[in-house]
Amino acid sequence: MTLLDARIWSLFKRHWRQTLTYWSAFFSFGLCIAFLGPTVLDLRCQTQSTLQQITWVFFSQQFFLLVGSGLGGLFKKTLPSSLLALFSCTLVISLVFAFIPLCDHVLLLSVAMAIAGLAMGVIDTIANLQLVKLYQKDSAVFLQALHFFIGLGALVSPLVADPFLAEDCCVLGANWTANSSSSSSSDLQHLRSSLAGHGAALGNVSQYPLHTEGVVVTRVSYAFWIMALINLPVPAAVLALMYHERLLPCFNYSPHLIDRDSLSSGSPTGDGGQGHGSLFGCCNPAKLRGRPASFFVLHAVGGAILFITDGIIGSYAGFVYTYAVSPPLLMGHKTAGCLDSTFWASITVGRLAFIYLSYRYTSPRLLTVSLAGVILVQCLLLIFYTSSVFLFIGTCVLGLCISSVFPSMLAFTEDTLDYKGCATTVLVTSASTGEMMLQLLVGSVIHSQGSYSFLLCCTISSFIGFSLFLLLLYVQHSHRNCSTDSSQDTDMKEKPEAGGS
Fold first, then answer.
1. Which of 27, 80, 321, 449 is the most interior residue, by most CB within 10 Å?
2. What is the pLDDT of residues 282-333, one digit of tens each?
């Protein structure tokens, strides 16, 4: 038996240019989202700012990523507008990478990361929207592959940055001596690992004194220029797709290929079609009139599930190191620093495996197994909380289980709503919100209650997410019945009219 049947393969061959372009854009997304944690201390030296000041850069990126996710739906109506936005955003990411070494003040760096976050949010929404629009009921396989490329980019950027990171204090103060090199290096390793999860663990590391005045000795600029070059093929790929589809200005007087495809297939791609709206367009009363209550509940519950699960990913990545180096585990800094990389690597491997599994099994089944697996792993982590070995095992399994939730949930919700609503934008925005807000919540709980509360918070969140999923299944069943009844009523009204004419 072949891995992909002829129909799926035929669909891919028909849309391979667009598909590969959206996948490459998500590589750009992953490249940008993972570099800040490892390089933040060198950036602190470059801007000669305090640790408290530099962590505002994390917030700037995350907040504007959330804003960009909501705004991304504005470019959904036509392929030209979405590709132009995608080209602009991927090019902006390369420009930001090139500009970061020139930022000598933390405010400039925060603005640069805000622009990058906005571009990342738009990429996130557009790529998901367009793949769902292209493949509809067959989108699950391609969405899994799309989110695999985030992990791939997130693995590449720390590898690029690592050779250029300062091994000792990168701002040499007047009272710095060679004798302090060893302790400085140890503290720096601890700080980097603690800040790997988007700066969420600031409260636990802010006691470390770091120089802000002196000679700056860092080579991190080379890492950003290399990443800018690595990312350049992505906007080039988008531009090549626009050229192929005759969407560049030089083809204004010839028919666009996408228009001819639409006419031959009979599916509208312009404003008249029922497409996905922006987060704000979802609230248009004219479009919402006559919708059953289940329509709104599906959006809300689907968004809540991704709020929880992406929040768990962000919280686990942000605080697993802090938990590992605290009592009772008291792991070494270098060993504990591998946990975050292990977690993201397992998510990447999981998404690669689920490309095939999503072809063989339905999204509800995959979601059931994944969410149940997340609960089981979290409970076992609570039970074996003193075992360092099991923490590594649990981190791997948790990454594998939770890796497919976002793409599977997106495919399932859009399929339930018959691809007529703005579910993609709502779900993407909810996931971004959860990743930002739950980190702040879990961080405050850890600060007041201790490191063990980290596992407890994640476990409680897992149970809430699974309960919401059961509610989603019930609402989905009711929505299907409601849609069937509505279609039968419409048929009954049309039959007498046909008979009397």
1. 321
2. 656 556 666 778 888 999 999 999 999 999 998 898 888 888 888 888 888 7
**Domain ranges for the chain:** 16-173+185-268, 279-482
User: Residue 114 has which token pair?
Assistant: 């805000």
Q: What is the dihedral of CA 118, 119, 121, 123, to 10 degrees?
A: 170
Confidence check: pLDDT of 371 > 80: yes
One CATH from 3.40.50.720, 1.20.1070.10, 1.20.1250.20, 3.40.50.2000 for 279-482? 1.20.1250.20
312 in Cβ contact with 374 (< 8 Å):
yes
CA gap 134, 114 in Å, rounded: 30
Tell me if 116 sits within 8 A of 61, measured CB to CB.
yes
The answer to whether 359 and 301 are in contact (CB under 8 A) is no
How far apart (Å, rounded) are the C-alpha atoms in residues 244 and 361? 35
Structure tokens, 119: 């571009």
- Over the Cα atoms of the chain, what is R_g? 24
- The token pair at 454 is 């980290």
Q: For residue 490, what are the contacts with CB-CB under 8 A and spacing of at least 6?
A: none
Alpha helices by DSSP H, 417-500 = 423-449, 452-500
8 Å CB contact between 239 and 90: no
Other Cβ atoms closer than 10 A to 360: 11
pLDDT tens, position by position, 457-486: 999 999 999 999 999 999 998 887 776 655
Give the predicted TM-score (pTM) of the model.
0.83
